[in-house]
Amino acid sequence: MLTLGIMTLNLENEQGYFTEMAKRAEKYNITCFRFIPSDINPQSEMIRGEEFDCNQEIWKHKLFPLPSILYDRCFYGEDFHSKQCKAIVDWLKTKKSVQFLGYGLPNKHKLYEALSRTSLAPYLPKTVKITSSEMVQQLCQKMKRVILKPINGSQGNGIYLIEKTDKFWKVKTDKTEYQATRSFANEMQLINWLDRLLHKKEFLLQPYLPLINEFNQPFDIRSLLQKTELEEWSIVGKGIRTGKINGIISNLSAGASVSDFDSWIKTIPFQKRAFINDEINDILENLPLILEQFFPPLFELGVDIGMAEDYSLWILDINSKPGRKVVLHSLPELSDYLYESPLLYANTLLKRSQLTHEKTLSD
Ligand SMILES: Nc1ncnc2c1ncn2[C@@H]1O[C@H](COP(=O)(O)OP(=O)(O)O)[C@@H](O)[C@H]1O
Ligand SMILES: [Mg+2]
C-alpha cells in the first residue's frame, strides 16, 4: 500500500481539493494522510495528523509514521509558524526514506538568475534585487515606471507600481476592493516610505510593462503544467485572468476574473494569432525541462505569461504550488483529471523507486 502525505500549514486549507483527491485514492491502492509539518515528532518521527477514511469519506485523527511520498502544499508567509514549517520541510527534503512529488522552486530572484542564462531570457522582464531605497529612486527616475514585488511572491500582495511624473512620485498598489495611491512631493519622502517598506521584506524591481488589454485592464495567461504518469510534462490547461480597469495586477486576490484561453486567442488579429499561440506553447514546453536542469525534480507548475500592447510575451511568474481555480473555472471538464493526477504521478514515483530498489538488490 502506497502512503501519500499531503502537507499544509492549516488543515482547513484546500479542503475540497485534498478530499476529492483522497476519495479517488483507493482505486490506486493509496492511503492519503494530511498533516502540518510542525506536527511531526522530531524524535520518533511519528506524525499527529489525519487519515482519510474511504468508507465514511471523512478525515480522521491519526498518529502515523512518515508517508512514503509527500505532496507539499504549504504556502508560507512571514510569520513564525511558516518559518518553522519551512525548516522542517527542508529537512524532510534531505531524507532518503521519503520522496516529494515535487521539490519546489527557489525565490523569484534565483529563478531569474537561472533562467536569464537560457533560451528563455528574451521573455524575462529585466529583474534586479533591491538593495537600497536610493537604488529604487534612481531606477525609477530613469525608467519612469517600475514595479516592486516581494522576492518570495505572495499572490498579488505587496506589489507596488512607482511612477515618476514631472512634480511627484506616485506609488500605487491594488487591494481586493480598491487601489491605494500615495503621492510624494519630493525624493526624501519617497525614500522614507521605501525605507519602511524594504525593512519588512526583500523586494525585486522590474520595469513596468503595459500588460493590458484594450480596456486598460491588466491581464495574463495562467497555465497549469503537470507531469503525467509517464513522467512527461503536459500543458493541462490555460486560462486568462483579467484584472480591474486601470488596475496593476491580474491576480484573483485583487478581484480578477477568469475567462477561457480559446476565446481570448481569437481576439488577436488573424495574422498574428498562430504565431502567438505557438510562441506561448513553445515557452510552456521548454520551461519545465529547462527548470529541471537547474533545480530538483518538479511535479507541477503554474506559469503566468503577460502580453504587452505590442504583442510581446513575458514570463512573469512561475509557481511550483499552483492553484487550480483558473483552469477549473475555464475548463471544468478537467476537474476529475486534476484530482487524480497527483495520485497517478505518486504511483509512478513508487514504481520507479521499487525498480531502483530491485536493481540495487540484484547488482
Ligand atoms: N513587470 C511587470 N509589469 C507590469 N505588470 C506586472 C509586472 N510584473 C507583474 N505584473 C502584474 O502583477 C501580477 C503579479 O505579479 P507576480 O510576479 O505574478 O507576483 P505574485 O507572486 O504576487 O503573483 C502579474 O500577474 C501581472 O498582472
Ligand atoms: Mg503570480
From TrEMBL:
Record-given protein name: Endospore coat-associated protein YheC
GO MF term list: ATP binding
Phylogenetic lineage: Bacteria, Bacillati, Bacillota, Bacilli, Bacillales
Pfam families: ATPgrasp_YheCD
